[in-house]
Amino acid sequence: MCLLGNGCADFLTDSGELIRINFFDRSLAFVKVGRGGIIRAGIFWGRFMKTITKAAVSSLTLAAGLLGLAAAVSAADLPATTTYYKAPAVEAWNPWMIRLRALGVIPNNSGSVDQVAGSGVKVSNSFIPELDISYFFTRNIAAELILGVTRHDVTGTGVAATNNLVVGSSWLLPPTLTFQYHFTDFGAFKPYIGAGVNYTVFYDQSAGNAANAAGTVVTSSNLHNAFAPVVQVGFDYMITSHVGVNVDVKKLWLRPDWSGTLGGVVPVTGRVNLDPWLVGTGLTYKF
């Protein structure tokens, strides 16, 4: 029995026959209602359920595809993810450097006594320890101050009156300040050039007080403090990031005035052209 509206449907064929289908009766595929009453036909239920199942699966597949497309479109609208990279380590840098050098002071043998024509002087060489303190304003620009003391003997040359005459001796304090440019493109080898000023203080001076073959005796001797321009060239070769070796050459144009007394009564004046070369080598320490 099939009641219309309770899972049943009626279909009218082209020949005028009425076919009623019960969707919930598994035993019937369909029923054919005609003049002869209800006639059971072949099984229809299995095919019907397969059709329904295929339609449901197709619908679900279509829905999943639409959802995937919507997700892709939404992802495309999102801003691009920012990639972060670790910054490279920055090498610690300290502006201070010191050097300890063995320094040779090699003066020029030139000068004269104003009152003695043909006179000349020579000054002894000296070798001393020397301390250098440098401050780097940038990696290329630095200021260097050298500190040290040196002692020199002055001897007369030239005509008989001054030849082999012991003029005297003096200690020198020659602080020298230079500004340098350091080249940094050669790895461990770091050459530099510089220029600056020197101020030499002469102290603890003494006269020769000894006669030469001509009988000339210097009884007082006084070299006067003086400024001098200076240029330099050198290099550091860094063994490690802190320790290296240094070679440095400086040229000074130092020409102090001199005054003295001969035999305790005759005042004399002159000039000593020291113009020394300062040649040093030693150790570098970079903080």
List keywords for this structure.
2 domains; mainly beta; 11% helix; 287 residues; disordered N terminus; Porin; 52% strand; rod-shaped; 4-stranded antiparallel beta sheet
Description:
This protein has one helix at 45-77; strands at residues 8-12, 18-22, 31-34, 37-40, 96-106, 111-113, 119-123, 126-136, 141-147, 150-158, 166-173, 176-182, 189-207, 218-223, 226-238, 243-252, 257-262, 266-272, 277-286. With 287 residues, it is mainly β. The chain has 2 domains: 8-77, no CATH class; 96-286, Porin. The longest helix has 33 residues, at 45-77.
Oligomerization status of the protein chains: single chain
Indicate the overall shape. rod-shaped
Strand content: over 45%
Helix content: 10-25%
- What can be said about the biggest beta sheet? 8 strands, antiparallel, barrel
> What radius of gyration results from the CA coordinates?
55 Å
Structural class: mainly beta
What is the succession of H and E elements? EEEEHEEEEEEEEEEEEEEE
What is the CATH architecture assignment of the largest domain?
Beta Barrel
So what's the CATH class of the largest domain?
Answer: Mainly Beta
Put simply, the count of helices is: 1
Please give the order of strands in the largest beta sheet.
Answer: 5-8-9-12-13-15-16-19
Compute the average pLDDT. 84
CATH topology type of the largest domain: Porin
The number of distinct structural domains comes to 2
- What is the terminal-to-terminal distance? 107 Å
Q: pLDDT below 50 for ≥5 consecutive residues: which ranges? A: 1-5, 28-45
- What's the total number of strands? 19
